[in-house]
DNA sequence: CCCTTTTCACCTAGGTGGTAAGAT
DNA sequence: ATCTTACCACCTAGGTGAAAAGGG
């Protein structure tokens, strides 16, 4: 079993990944976490899921003058460690491998009381997304094999800082340029973006 | 195994169940075919599907002055007999029985060249929707039991005439009043509709 | 002062019937 | 004359960042 992460632009982002109470009580991840999977048994069932680990025990703040993140103290109490199952789970290996798997329904929130099953994060903290593949073992005593039926993949380039508002104007512009839902804020052709924002 | 059809207003409809070429090459069924299912094995897998049979070998036309459908000759050549699988298929009996099953993704077209897998019908012809339940037999020689693993349910009240344009103003008004996507054509509160259109 | 929440206009994406033009 | 198609405004439903207001 092998997995490659498909989104090349992660390192550019300090993400507005968090937030809000009703009506907008959560946000999708953007860019979306996407993987290409190899080596599954085409006929077997698998569950695909993601979770998020704190990268460290720190809280951060953004230093505007130096355009960098600084440690601002100890982390806030950890949020509930929820898990997001890909909504197509369970599905056959053949189905998962057929095309890139996209976690575009995954939503993040900072609302500790969230009851929609969204991933809860602390703003101004750093997180490492993790991707898990669970083989659905048809044997009756499958609990015994839980360990070997479970594989975890970590792509360090997908680490990010959760925020409730963007701290860096270039990130804002990059999101506006690349997220179709933010098209209303574009002031030029997104094709030209890498050139005229260098 | 037992099934009840959940939509009470079928008999009122001569349906604009058909048509068009791109960009609008098909239409949903409205009202949606919905069923409540009883008596499945909660732990077994089932596929749910629908198809449409011609009610007779006739073509119809609408007589405006008498507000009724008249036979207008022999049926056109039959369209490809396609099938629509409920997109949640396969799923466990417990899942299907938990709530009303709604075929709201089913789409109809009159385009014989349709390559989206939509149901193809002849306009001005009458059809009988059918609902099928297929038990996914885990036995290796399951083909042998195909017959007994397959149940069909027919609700005669769901018969309709496919059209490309409504032939009756009261049908148009009823659709406008009851379909949320037609709200733009309402000229009064839909709650008042049964009263002020009697 | 720094961060969070609310509300908003503006998008994406797609399902309606009206209407006028097209086809037979 | 009758039916079909193309295009349209107008909805549903929901995802954006901006800006202003709120909170410690």
TrEMBL record, chains A, B:
T-box domain sequence ranges: 28-187
Entry's localization field: Nucleus
Protein's UniProt name: T-box transcription factor 1
Origin organism lineage: Eukaryota, Metazoa, Chordata, Craniata, Vertebrata
């Amino acid at each position: 079993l092998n997995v490659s992460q498909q989104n090349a632009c992660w390192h550019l982002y300090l993400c507005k990944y968090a937030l809000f109470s009703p009506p907008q009580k959560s946000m999708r991840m953007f860019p979306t976490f996407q993987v290409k999977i190899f080596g599954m048994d085409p006929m077997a069932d698998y569950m695909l899921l993601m979770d998020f680990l704190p990268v460290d025990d720190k809280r951060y703040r953004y230093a505007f003058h130096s355009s960098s993140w600084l440690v601002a103290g100890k982390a806030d109490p950890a949020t509930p460690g929820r898990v997001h199952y890909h909504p197509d789970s369970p599905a056959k290996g053949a189905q998962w491998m057929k095309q890139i798997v996209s976690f575009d329904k995954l939503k993040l929130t900072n609302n500790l009381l969230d009851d929609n099953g969204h991933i809860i994060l602390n703003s101004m903290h750093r997180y490492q997304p993790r991707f898990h593949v669970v083989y659905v073992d048809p044997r009756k005593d499958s609990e015994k094999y839980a360990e070997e039926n479970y594989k975890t993949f970590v792509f360090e380039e997908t680490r990010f800082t959760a925020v409730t508002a963007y701290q860096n104007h270039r990130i804002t512009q990059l999101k506006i340029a690349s997220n179709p839902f933010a098209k209303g804020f574009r002031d030029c052709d997104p094709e030209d973006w890498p050139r005229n924002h260098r």
